[in-house]
Amino acid sequence: MTTTEATTTSTQTTTADPAGESVLPELRSMWWESGLRARAAAGVLAVFTELPRLAWQAMRISWRADRTRTLIVIVATLTAGVMSTFGLLATQRVLVELFAGGPTPDRVRAALPALTLLAAATAVRAGMGIALGYAQNGLNPRVNLQAERRLFETTTAVRLDAFDADAFADDMERASRGTDAVMSLVQGVTNLAAGVVGLLAVTVAVVVIHPLLLVALLMATVPNGWASVKAGHQRYQTYLAGSVRRRRLWILHRLMAERATAAELRTYRLRDFLLDQYDRVMGAETRIQLDLARRVTTTTSVGAIIGGIATTAVYVLLGLLLLDGQIPLSAAATCVIAVQAAQRSLAVVTFQIDRTYTDGQHFGDYTGFMTRAGDYMPPPAGTHTPGPLRELAVDQVSLSYPDRDTPALDQVSLVVNAGQTVAFVGENGSGKSTLAALIAGLRTPDDGKITWNGHTLTDLNPDLVRARIAVVSQDYFKWPLSAATNIAIGDITTPPEQERIQAAATRAVAHDMIEDLPHGYDTLLDRTFADGQDLSGGQWQRITAARGFYRDAELLIMDEPSSALDPRAEDALFQAIRDRHGTATTILITHRLANVRHADRIFVLHDGALVEAGTHDELMDAGGRYADLFALQAAGYSDRTDPS
Ligand SMILES: Nc1ncnc2c1ncn2[C@@H]1O[C@H](COP(=O)(O)OP(=O)(O)OP(=O)(O)O)[C@@H](O)[C@H]1O
Question: ipTM strictly over 0.85?
Fold first, then answer.
């Protein structure tokens, strides 16, 4: 597909129904696709210039994965090729002897040495085939392991902001597809090498018999080869242009078939809406696939027709050479066998060129992703060891999310002393969670710095800093693990201890609730597995709070830890937080302002700026934003209790 075609297809999808533009904005052409498309449009011949590089890369991966098997593959492939040449030359000798004059027994006897050679060559070739299969089978899982592990090593190491970039998500989607391609590429290159060696073997044999036969061989093989390569190119271009569509389809699959969305889908009667979305994306996809099928069929049919005509011409040429006495009958017969062998090898070669090229492009996506992901890697880790927390200072810190006009945090400065309980309050979107993420070292400020006992966070060893901080996030993830493990992953560096797990659960008011589960602490918290259970929102929140307590960190950051808790549980949780006062530091983010009254210091954020700071009493006296919010919330309670 050309660039124009790709653009047309994506606009077709969105303009077919103007509503689609806003509902499915991802269907628009992405800026980053144009560069890749340009590469794909480089032309069919580019395949041949790229193949050696791809083969080299595949071999390097294979070598790293398993040297012995890679060696077996190389030796077996080459030996099988040499045996093919031998086999063909031996066949010709057998035919020469059989077509010679004299009684049949004498002719058979004369052909015996060549026949023995032929049998030996065939046996060695078959043996090499078995060795090749054995080596390849053992190589595949090892190569796959290497490729996939490297991908996950990268995706788990990149900075958090990588996941804010849509290009990164698309890039990653293609890279995941690329991990399968690594294995396929190694296999494809081996098979391709086997096919090429087979073709070379036939070529050598044919040239030895009669150089003119080489022309015949080329005529019979080139058209099909060209068509096959071109078809592969067409398929890859279509695949490339469809990355955004596939991501959208994947999202729709999950929205329509997963448990997490099942209830809301029904409540809001989203069935028809989602099916309509699916029809639109699939409609576009089907049109594109049908168009591709038409173009691929045309290409391969043209190749097959020209190839057929050329093969007929070869047989005519052979007939003419025979009639003219240019070649003996034995050579002509060997040539027919050779052409058939060449066509078999060519079928392998063209299929493998197609596959290797396609896999090579996917592999390029994989390696390209690895390179581009380098831009998202955290800066070199600091080496200083953080001591026990004395003072945490946020100094003139700003952060803007990509594609946002206003900063999420704007020149924020504050100090938290060890043993304090401080609160971040403010309206939705005021920047509280962003500030917490910066303090936890999950994001790096664009400007300003955060210091731990006077050392900038980036100068400190990040693992050692994180070991001293526990974060209970507002957007927690429901890990599909047992209740005990869900808590124990709060400190993965030590083996889980049941007593410690229970103590953390008790502080988070989760113990009794967990004991009541069918298998207690061993209950699997995922309904999609056998024996799995799900929890209510408040119960999940208790588990995540227990995870935060499990680490017993010097600095505990709790972002909306009680939004789903019942009043009794909420009270108990905040009592546990107050118990930390004086011995450990807590940063609390909550909209329930009654719970921050006891905080040593309350920081009020508004539109990313720190607008007020002080104790509850100071802020109430100041009569500013905090006092307004507090009075508003308090009025809600007093209205209900006020009998008037
Ligand atoms: N990953 C992100 N990409 C782009 N913008 C973001 C991202 N996360 C947050 N924002 C924006 O940054 C601003 C601050 O968000 P933040 O989550 O820090 O607010 P908050 O004070 O914690 O809000 P809430 O009380 O609703 O939890 C908001 O305008 C939000 O839309």
Answer: yes
